[in-house]
Amino acid sequence: MTYRIKVPPRSLPVDEAHLLSGLERFVLSLRDYRRPLLVGMTMLLLAGGTVGAVLWYDAQTARKAQDLEREATLHYLTRPTDDPKKADSNLKEAIALYKRVTDEYPRTPAGPLALFHLGNSLVQANELDSAIEAYKRFVVMYSSQVALLGLVQQKLGYVYLLKGDRDQAAKAYAAVLQIPGALNRDHALYELARLEESQSRPEAALAYYNDLVKAYPNSPLANEAAVRMKALDVKKPSDVPSPPVAPAPPNTAPKP
């Protein structure tokens, strides 16, 4: 008697069957949303391309501005002292290049430095009003550039002094003291003290000199301030009243 071995029917595991049905549903969903997906992917690629193009353009612009600023500085620094005509030509070329940077590329990293050097170049060219305008433009546009902002205010004070406007010069120097982290506060204190001296106000000058010596003892201006304080103390009138002058004795000599 023969026996037949029964082979159980082959069937997929439950989990594998569920997996296949899930894949099928996913494929069907892709077919249903094919157009929106393609549109989304296209927009994503376009956005990425746009961002990349903007970054590339910004990098090229910054490089071009930096090259112009360096060329201008080269003209400014290589003015020959023995050739006034060539020196004047170099200065004019530097001013033109600095203006180009500040006008065409103001938002690049080279923009603030170019505007600062533009003001300095205009001072050298004795264009004081244009220099003041350049420095004021810097204050408005680049107030976050703390290190340069203090120097700009100091330069602005110098230009006002050249124009004979002591009040505006004092305001410019005082503005340096209001800039947190300014590296030239000692210079501003010294200039304010000198201004007070020039206007015969020794008490105010002494106060500024004293602040300079106390706050910045290692400053190269501290020694000069101490010397000026001693000089002002010598000139300062004494607070001790002078003794009264005794009246002259009456003339008691007999008349002839």
Structure report:
There is one protein chain. With 256 residues, this protein is an all-alpha fold. Helices cover 72% and strands 0% of the residues. It has 10 helices and no strands. The chain has helices at 14-32, 34-77, 84-104, 110-124, 128-141, 146-162, 166-177, 185-198, 202-215, 222-235. The chain is elongated. The model is unreliable at 239-243 and 252-256 (pLDDT under 50).
Quick recap:
The protein is mainly α. Helices cover 72% and strands 0% of the residues.
Largest sheet: none
Query: By helix and strand content, what is the structural category?
Result: mainly alpha
Which radius of gyration do the C-alpha atoms yield? 39 Å
Proportion of residues in extended strands: under 5%
The helix/strand series, from N terminus to C terminus, equals HHHHHHHHHH
Please give the alpha-carbon distance between the first and last residues. 192 Å
On the 0 to 100 scale, the average pLDDT is 84
How much helicity do the residues have? over 70%
User: Which consecutive residue ranges, at least 5 long each, have pLDDT under 50?
Assistant: 239-243, 252-256
Q: Could you tell me the number of beta strands?
A: 0
Task: Indicate the overall shape.
Answer: elongated
Q: Can you count the helices?
A: 10
